[in-house]
Amino acid sequence: MKKLIIINGPNLNLLGVREPEIYGNLSFTEFLDEISSKFKDVTIDYFQSNIEGELINKLHEVGFSYDGIILNAAAYTHTSVGIGDAVSGIKTPVVEVHISNTFSREDFRHQSYIAPHTKGVIVGFGLQSYELAIQSFIPS
């Protein structure tokens, strides 16, 4: 059984209430229940923090023992060299995801300090971005 973890960054604890026109009406807890039942052969753990250092600590903690990490560092994607360095320093493959299409938003959101160190990047498919990332870790 594959063991994956979804790590979400700042403000993603507000999914379902924050800017529903961009992020939808579903809370991440509700969505996690849905995908856990959809991917029964995968263990999916979850961690969310609004604090950059906590995200880095979690990457260090799980970055050598999990089969995959799905990381939505949110706004830290565009500002955190530290998170990029943490991803670079671990062995577990990482897929960077974003709910919105970051390339259709403000110019500063077009830069990722994480992407150069990842297996891939999925942007703009809403919460389905996470499902696509999970599928990338499942052999066909």
Automatic annotation (TrEMBL):
The gene is aroQ. Pathway: Metabolic intermediate biosynthesis; chorismate biosynthesis; chorismate from D-erythrose 4-phosphate and phosphoenolpyruvate: step 3/7. The record marks 18 as: Transition state stabilizer. It comes from the Bacteria. Belongs to the type-II 3-dehydroquinase family. This is 3-dehydroquinate dehydratase. SUPFAM superfamilies: Type II 3-dehydroquinate dehydratase. Keywords: Amino-acid biosynthesis, Aromatic amino acid biosynthesis, Lyase. It holds the Pfam family DHquinase_II. GO terms for molecular function: 3-dehydroquinate dehydratase activity. The active site is at residues 23, 98. It catalyses: 3-dehydroquinate = 3-dehydroshikimate + H2O. Catalyzes a trans-dehydration via an enolate intermediate. Substrate binds at residues 72, 78, 85, 99-100, 109. Its EC number is 4.2.1.10. InterPro entries: DHquinase_II, DHquinase_II_CS, DHquinase_II_sf. Signal peptide: none annotated. Homododecamer. PANTHER family: CATABOLIC 3-DEHYDROQUINASE. The keyword Nucleotide-binding does not apply. PROSITE patterns: DEHYDROQUINASE_II.
